[in-house]
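Objective 1b. Sequence-to-structure analysis of Alpha/beta hydrolase.
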Amino acid sequence: MFVVSEDGTCIAYEVVGTGKPLVLLHGFTADHTIWREVGYVERLAGRQLILIDARGHGRSDKPHVPEAYDAGRCAADVAAVLNDIGAVNADICGHSLGGTIALAFAARYPNRVRSLVVNGAHPFGQDLSLLRAAVSVGIEPWISYLRTQTWPLTDGNVRQLRSNDLDALRACVALDRSDRSAPFVGFDRPILAISGEADPLCPKVRDFAALAGADYLELVGCNHFQAFLAVDPICARMEEFLALP
């Protein structure tokens, strides 16, 4: 399915199942299919899962200008999808880039958030120069980097990664992220923050959890990507967290 966001960007999404809506937002260079591939869709059955292709990824439009990836525009994409399916609010979950979009959505549309699950992301300022360097000469260095992070890439993963629009990826990470933590001081929706212990972002995720009074799950020995692939402990904690009134 497709919907047009407020700035005219076409956003692709898929809805799986029925029940309370749970939005799943993928990381940089992935697309919505990753949630099914690694096992989240199966584990989270019993919910209405809303799998969104972030702008610049998957079947969504792929702008080539950095301004198109402003946090407010990315947040509006999620709102457009919820409007399209008639959902007033939803639980919102994102990993990495998807976590950043989830935070932007929560900051802009707090009344549309039932709860927030953020894995490997935080609302503080962030230098994206490593991501810029990773895709500066093509996708192969990024694929090689993922392999060093013990991501067991399948042939399908590699095909999906190589299908990315490099100019869109470069625009997506062209600008460093500014601090957007203020809305989470006293935020009145439940938050679960997740990080791999070996993720360089872990201290910032811990700081975010403390700032927001969030529940916190730290995955021992996991790096940024392994903390996404740890489906069983994450879904067990999410199921407990999402069951809260």
